[in-house]
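Box S1 | Example of a co-folding query
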Amino acid sequence: MSDQQGITVPKGKDFSEWYNEVTLKAGLADFSSVKGFMFIKPYGYGIWELIQAALDSLLKAQGHQNAYSPALIPERFLQREQEHVEGFSPELFVVTQAGTQPLEERLILRPTSETVVYDAYAKWIRSWRDLPLLYNYWNSVFRAEIKMTKLFLRTCEFLWQEGHTVHATEGEADREVRSILESYRTLMEDYLAIPVLTGRKSDKEKFAGAVYTTTLEALMPDGKALQMGTSHQLGQNFAKAFGITFLDQAQKRQHAWQTSWGVSTRTIGAVIMVHGDDRGLVLPPRIAPIQVVVVPIFQDASKDSVLKEAKHLQGKLEKLGIRVQLDDREGYSPGWKFNEWELKGVPVRLEIGPKDLEQQQAILVRRDSMQKQPVKWDALGTVVPALLEDIQAALFRKATSFLEANTRPAATLKELGRLAEKEKGFILAGWCGNKACEEQVKDQTGTDIRVIPFQPPAGACVVCGNSGQQACFARAY
Ligand SMILES: [Zn+2]
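Box S1 (continued) | Returned holo structure for zinc ion
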């Protein structure tokens, strides 16, 4: 394989450069001429469409409906909720002119849509009959002040969904927060094949304006954590700031309870990092735009008969609902095609040549382990779906073993610091709940509290020694 075509940097040697090469060469995304912004190319967008479809059906099954909100927000809206504006003001794109005229009021390109959406909700919600209101918005958001662009992981604009729900009671909003977190876990573990730790954020790390934030955290191969999604209990903070009230069944006016939650295209970055190898991308079958690539191998004399059977097998697999591509391109050798589809992480390759015609078989090669097996045509309809399921499960098992092997306890701040420096990964350590102790850990070890388990075991604080609970620390993206 020529250096031009394949991945030139081993994953274990320069992880960051490997990531860039895989993302670009697999045709997932590209940099834009506008600094900090990215193109998502069809193959990358195909992955996003499958992630969207999976999550969309999980959300709709719980009664959520999709809607769309405008991209521009009056600046004064952001200022209504004090914590919210403080959390977001350093990273805003501001629109000051419309056509040739300066705007009377500055507009913000949404960094997230709470404020503009809740201004509308104040008009739409009148009575307890209007609740719960369960809307979800697929859109993109904008965050300025990106220092180093990293495709899918750090860009000024990214795609996501943001859910914004309104409830009559605190308990109902709490249940919504947790049920969304569980849907997100299903998406990450069952579709992306990435295990996650779930729990709460500390007050320091919570969403600006939330009462509390729940999170899903995954571990990347370089030992750094990646936040895969968050689900926030907003309490009545925004309802009070935006006047979202309803008449309850006793005809009494109440402030509503709210939640918001989101998952973004950065999950694609996680898929690249967690599953990829030195040949390139390795895609979990459930989110692979192409699940099986059929590569016919022939010379002039055998071309017609091999192609005919290749098309026949393609059709047979497609009838089972499998996403199949036949690579019958001229002018590329089979070896070149193998490398290309390995680079693109297609889960299964099906090879068929003249000798296979005689045997009425095809050769199946799985991308994760590169194992080969001949399979009779008659058996393909049962073997291929089972193989795809097996690859999906094997990827999740492998990622789970990595997560478990790289989650370590630390009894003292010194040990936490040593683990953060040498071993990396998730570090479980006691914390008293004090922000000053949390900040001292950050200063001395470079780690944040990524997540506090929902039912944390007790543990003495590694900074002050006071009694506390176990929290999970790590360096993070
Ligand atoms: Zn402490």
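The mean pLDDT is 96. The longest helix spans residues 377-405.
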